[in-house]
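ok trying again, last paste got cut off:
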Amino acid sequence: MTGAAAPTRLAHVQALRAVAVGGVLIFHFWPHALPGGFLGVDIFFVISGFLITGGIVRQVERRQFSFRQFYIRRIRRLIPAAALVALVSGVVAWFVQPISLWLDTFSELLASTLYVQNWFLVYKGNDYFAGSPSLAQHYWSLSVEEQFYLIWPVIIVLAGWIGHRTGGVRRGVIVALGALTLASFITSVVVTPQDWQLSFFATHIRAWEFGVGALLALAPTPERRPWHAAVGWAGLVVLAVCLYVYRGTWPFPGWIGAIPVLATALCLWGGFGQGRRALSRVVLSPPVLWAGDISYSLYLWHWPIIVLAPWVLEGETSLPVDLGLVVLCFLLAWVTKTQVEDRFREGGVVLVRGVDPLRRPSIVVATVLPLVVVVGCVLQLSTITAASSRAAALEGQALASDLPCYGVEALDDPSCEPPFGDELIPALSTAYVDFTQSPENNECMQTVTASTVIRCVFGDPHSDTTVALVGDSHGLAWLPAAQVAAEERGWRLLTYLRGACPVSAAVTKRYVPGEQELCDAWSRDVIEEVVTDPEVDLVMTAALNTITWVPTEGRSPYETGVEGYAQAWNRWAEAGKRVLVMEETPLPRDDVLECLSQQPARACAQPESQVDQPGPSPLHAAVDRLRADGQPVDLMPVRDLFCADDACPAVVGNIVVYVDGDHVSQPYMRTLGPRVGEAWDALVNAG
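nice, full thing came through this time. structure:
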C-alpha cells in the first residue's frame, strides 16, 4: 500500500487475521490478560468460509472449478508448514520431554498430521481450558479447517448443479449453505449446554461459523458508502469486548458464539476505512498487515514454543523470558512464511513449467514431509505399546504366581527385593492413560457433562452380598482393589462413579455453567438409588478432600461439606446399609511421573509430612459425627498402605504408585485388594 491508495479487501482481511492470531497468542501466553483470546480461532473460521466460498462459487458459475486443482492448492498452502512444525516439535520433544509425556505427544502429533486432532481430543475427553497442555493441542482448529476444505467444495458443486437446473447456481448454493449453517448453529445451541467438550471440537457443530463467512461472500456487494466503515469498526469494537469479556468457563460456542462470529462478519463487510484517518492507518499499517500475513505460521509455532520452553529451560518461564519467546515465535513464523509457505503456495522456485502439478517437486515434498512425521510417530508409538505390553505381562505374572515383595508387600518389609529388578509397572509412558482410558473409566465413569446414573456390575452377579462403590475419580481409583476383594469373596460389586462429583447431599461448587446442577442431580439420584436398593449391604465411598461446597445458610463451605456427607451416609445407614469411608490417599509430588522419568525412584518419594491434603477433612468429621450417633459408619485408614519410615515412595515393589498428583495406579490398587476385603469382612460381620 503506497501513497493514498485505498487498501484492498485483502488488507482488511489481513488486519482481521492479525487480530485473531494476536488474541490467541496473548491468551496462550498470558490467559488472564485476554481471557477471551481463544475467540481468535472463530475469527479464522469465518474468514476461511468467506474467502474459500466466494472463489469456488465464481469458478462453478463459469464451469471452471477443478477439484484436483483446489486440493493441490490446499496441500501447497497448508501442509508443508504444518508438517514442518510438527516434525521439529516432535524431535525437540523427544529430546527434552520425559517419557511419561510421549504417548500424548506422539499420538497427538500423529492425529494432527492426519488432520483428525479435533476428534482425537473428543475421544480423549480433553477440556481445552483445563488440564496439562499437550504439544499438538492447537492443531485441533487446523483439523476442523481441513475437514471443512475437504467437504465444502463437494457441497457447493452439488448445490450449484441442482441450482443450475432449478433457478441459478448462486441461488442454489445460498439455499444449501444457508440450511446447513442454520442446522449447524441449532445443533451448537442444543449440544453445547449438554456436552461443551464435544461442541467445542466437533466439525459439524463448528460448521456454522464457516457458513456465516460463506453466506457473506455470496451476498450482493453494495456500492461502497462512507458509513460502511462505521459498520466494520462497530464489528471490531464488539470483537475487542468479546476478547476481553469472554471466559473459558462459559459453555462455548452455543448461542454466545454468534456474537463474535457476527462481529467478524461485520468487519469483513464494512472494512476499516480507506487508511486516511489515524485509527484506520494504525489498523491497516504495515506491521499489522505483516502480522496478518504470517498469522498461519505464527499460530503453528507459538504453542509448541509455549509447551516446550519449560522443558528446554528446565523451569517455569518469567515475563522477560515469555517476551523473548514471543519474539522467537514471530521470527520462526516469518522464516516459515517466506521460506516454506511462499515457496510452496504456487510451486515457488521449485515450479517446473509444463510438468503435471502432481509430479512437481513442491507436491512431492508436501507429501513426503507429513509422511515422515507419520512414520516417526508410528514407530515411537510402537515402542511405547511394546513397553506397556511388557509391563502388563509382568503384572499378570506377579498376580498369577503371588510373587512376594510385589506391590504393597514390599512396603511392609523394607528388606524385600522387588521380583522384577528395576522394571516399572505400569510403564511410565502409559501410566496416566492406563488410568484415564481404562475400560472401567470409559464404561462406568459418568462425565462432567451428564447426570445420568451409570451402574456397572463386577464380581458374582448372583451373590447374596452386594457392595456399592460410590464416588468421584478417587472412587474410580479404588475400583481395582474393590474388584479383587469382591472376586476373592464371590460378592457382587456395583459402581456409581462420576468425575469431579463426590456423592453428597451438599452441592459441589463448580465453575463451569451447568456442571454444578448436573453434579447435584447425579449425586442425589445415586443417594436415592442406593437407599432404595434392598440388595446393597455395604457402601464403600471415596472422594477428593479439596472439593469446594456451595455454602448453605449459616454454614461455611467446610461445614456444608461435613453436613452433606453426613446426610447422605445417614440415609444409607438408616436404610440398613453399612458404610465404609476411605481415608484420602496421601498426595505425591505433582510431577511424580516426570520425576520417575528423569531420576531414581528414591528421589521421587514424598516426605510423609507433606502428603496431607490441604485443610481439614470433611470426610473424617462426618464419620466422627455419625459414629457418635451410633451409626454403622467406619473410616478405613490408608496412610500405612502408602507410607513407611516417614516417606511415601513413588515406587513400591516394582509398581508405580501414582499416575498424577492425586490418583493411585491400578496395579498398586490391585495389591491393596486383600486389605480392602478385610475391612469389608469386619463391617459385614459386625452387622
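cool. The chain has 27 helices and eleven strands. Residues 298 and 333 are 5 Å apart (CA to CA).
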